[in-house]
Amino acid sequence: MKTETPVIEIQSLVRRYGKHDAVDGLSLNVGAGKCYGFFGRNGAGKTTTIKCLLNLLRPDSGNVRVFGLDPRKDEVAIKSRLAYVPDMVAFYPWMSVRETLEYLASFRRNWNEDIEKDLLNRFQLDATKKTSSLSKGQRTQLALIGAICPEPELLVLDEPTSGLDPIVRREFIETVIGAYQSGDPSRRTVFVSTHLISEFEGLIDEFTIIEQGRELLTMGADNARDRFKKIRARLPQESKVTLAGALSVKRNGRELEILANGNSEQLLAELKSHLPEELKVEALSLEEIFVASGILKKANA
Amino acid sequence: MIFQIDFKSGTPVYLQLVEQIRHAAASGGLRTGEPLPSIRPLAEELRVNRNTIAKAYAELESQGVIETVPGKGCFLKAVGSPLTKSARNDLLVQEIDRAVVAAHHLQISDAELLALVQKRLNVFERKNNVAND
Predict the structure, then answer these.
(1) Hey, is the C-beta of A33 within 8 angstroms of any chain B C-beta?
(2) CA angle A200-A178-A183, nearest 5°?
(3) Of B12, B43, B47, the CB nearest to A222
C-alpha cells in the first residue's frame, strides 16, 4: 500500500536568531486529514517553526516539506493550497468586510461563496462595516472566513483564539469542525499551535510538545490519554512509599497524588500493598499532559 | 440523545460514543429506526473532531448496531442482530473482562462483583419495564 505523502514534514529543523537557537533540531510529520496540535511554552519555537513552513524564514539546516514540496522553491504552489490564520490578523482598515473578502478571493483559484454566505450569517458580520471598526473577535472571524472559503487542503492556525472571549472561541472551533472539515477528509488537515489546549482537546488527533526548540513529546491524543494517569490514594497510615518511576508525587500526610507515564499498573500495585482507603485513577487532559511534560523534561535532563 | 464526553476517563472519545449509543439502544433511549445525530452537527456540538464521530459510527456499523442509509443518515438497526451468537458473546466477554479488571483494581471480591451484577440486572429490567409501559 502506497504511503501518502505527509502534508507537513519537518526533519531536524534548525533556525537560529543570532546566538540563540530558536529551533534546535525539531522533527515532526503531519499526515493528511489529521488535526495536529503544536504546543509549547512562549519562546519554545512554535512561531519560528510555522514561519519556516510559510517561507517567511529559511531554515539554517534541516528540511521542511509541505505537500512534499520545499517552501523555498515552491512557495506559491504550497500557499495556493493552504490558509494561515495568525494571532494578530491584519486587514486594510479602510476596506469593508465585503471588500476584504473580495480582495482575498481575488488571490484564490477557488472560493466557496455558499460557505462565505453561511459564515457571514453565522457570525452576524455586517458586510458593509470597515475592518477598522471590527472588534478583535470579529476580525478573527473575518480571517477565518477568508481562510475557509478557498477550501484549502491545510489550515495553519497560530494562536488563533488568543484574547478572544469564550463564546467567540467556541464558535471558532465549531466553525473549524463544521465549515472547514467538510468534503474529502484527506484534503482537510489542520495544524494548530495554541496555549488554549483544553479548547482544542476534542479536535486534536496527534500533537507535538516543543520545548526550547526541540520536540519533547510526540504522541497520538488517545494514546497519550491512555498513558498519562493521575492516581489519587489515601492510605490508612503515613506509610513510607517508594513509587519508583512515577512522573511526580505530591504528598499531604496520608493523601498522595501521583502522575504516571505508562507505568500506572506498577504504581497501583505498590499502592494496593498498603491497603489504601481510597484509590482513584484518572487520565490527564491534554493540557495537564502539557504541564506534566515540564516535569518529564526535568526527569530526562 | 445527549452525550457526555469525558477527556479524563482514559477511554478514547470514539469508544465513549460507541458505548453511550449502545447503552441507549439497549435501554430504549434510542429506538429501532430512530436516526442518530448527523456527524457534522454532533461534532460541532461536542467540539470533537469529525473523524472521531465517523470512527464511532463506523465501529457501530461493523458491530451491526446501526446501519447507514445513503442520503438519509444512520439508523438504529432492529434488535434481531445479524451477528451470530458467538460473535455477540465475544463482544459481551470483552465488557465482562473490563468489569473484572475494574473490580480487581477496586479490591472488590468476586462474590461482591457477582452480587452487583445481579443487582444491576434487576435495575435494568425494571427500567425497561417502565419504558415499555
Answers:
(1) yes
(2) 115
(3) B12
DSSP assignment letter at A130: B
Chain A window 119-138: which residues touch B at a Cβ cutoff of 8 Å?
A: none
Which chain B residues are closer than 8 Å to A232 by Cβ? none
Nearest alpha carbon to residue A283 among A209, A222, A219:
A222
Beta carbons of A177 and B13 less than 8 Å apart: no
CA triplet B3, B9, B14: central angle to 5 degrees?
Answer: 50
Instruction: Specify the 3-state DSSP secondary structure of A281.
Output: strand
pLDDT (tens digit, 0 to 9) for every residue of chain B, 133 residues total? 788 898 888 889 999 999 888 888 777 777 788 888 999 999 999 999 998 999 999 999 998 888 888 888 888 887 655 555 666 777 788 889 989 988 988 889 999 999 999 999 999 888 877 766 6
How far apart CA A17 and CA A77 sit, in angstroms, is 28
CB atoms inside a 10 Å sphere around CB A276: 21
* Beta-carbon separation of B105 and A174 below 8 A: no
CB contact (8 A) between residue A33 and residue B107: no
> Which of B40, B46, B47, B98 is the mutation pick for testing A, counting most A CBs within 10 A?
B47
Tell me, yes or no, if A266 comes closer than 8 A to chain B by beta carbon.
no
Query: Is the ipTM value over 0.85, yes or no?
Result: no
Rounded distance between C-alpha atoms, residue A142 and residue B36, angstroms = 33
Helical axes A113-122 vs A166-175, angle rounded to 10° = 160
Question: Do B10 and A281 lie within an 8 Å CB cutoff?
Answer: yes
User: B8–A282: do the CB atoms touch at under 8 Å?
Assistant: yes
Contacts of A132 (CB under 8 A, 6+ apart): A93, A94
Closest C-alpha to B104, from A229, A265, A3: A265
Check the CA dihedral B80-B84-B87-B93 and report its sign.
positive
Of A173, A181, A229, the CB nearest to B47: A173
The sheet carrying A206-211 orders its strands as: A82-85, A154-158, A189-193, A35-40, A206-211, A214-220
pTM: 0.83
